[in-house]
Each structure stands twice: as structure tokens, then as C-alpha cells.
Amino acid sequence: MNNKEHKPEFLFEKVNYKILLIGLAVITLGFILMSGGGSDDPNVFSDKIFDFRRIRLAPAVVLIGFGLMIYAILKNPKKA
């Protein structure tokens, strides 16, 4: 038997988890930017859904968030 305590090893380092959380927050922000723009009256069409924020900005923010998530997963910590 070993007298030393066995420390649980995590899959990622602390930095990886921080980047994952930042990526998740960026993705959430992108989906929030995409929301809205509808009309209150179903018989009236609203051009707000074709706004720059919903068509260009929000998808770009979501893709940046996914890129951060992939980077966090693939980032290899420096081991001594």
C-alpha cells in the first residue's frame, strides 16, 4: 500500500478551463445578439431580422466562440 495520497488528475489544466468558459460566454453572447427582430403583429413583416447585427456580427461572434473552444481543447499544457 502506498501512504501517499493520490491526487485526482483533471483532463485539462486550469488555463484550458478558463478558455473553455470564455468561449462558452462568447457563444452565448453571439446567440443573444441573434435574438429579437421579430414583429409584434404576425401580419406585418419587419426588416429588423436583416439587420447587420443579426446577419453578420452574431454569427461571427459565435464562430469566434467555437474557435476558442477548439483552441482550449487542443491547447497542450507545458509539462516539466
Describe it for me?
This protein is mainly alpha-helical. It is 55% helix and 0% strand. The chain has two helices and no strands. The radius of gyration is 21 Å and the shape is elongated. The mean pLDDT is 88.
Short key terms for the protein model shown above:
single chain, 80 residues, mainly alpha, 2 helices, 55% helix, elongated
Q: Give the low-pLDDT segments.
A: none
Specify the helix fraction band. 55-70%
Structural class based on helices, strands and sheet pairing: mainly alpha
How many helical elements?
2
pLDDT averaged over residues: 88
Based on DSSP secondary structure assignment, what is the total number of beta strands? 0
Oligomer: single chain
Rg from Cα: 21 Å
Order of helices and strands: HH
Distance between termini?
27 Å
Overall geometry comes to elongated
Strand content: under 5%
**Sheet with the most strands, sense and barrel status:** none
Layout: helices, strands, pairs:
Elements: H1 14-34, H2 52-74
Helix pairs in contact: 1-2
In short:
This protein has helices spanning 14-34, 52-74. It is mostly helical.
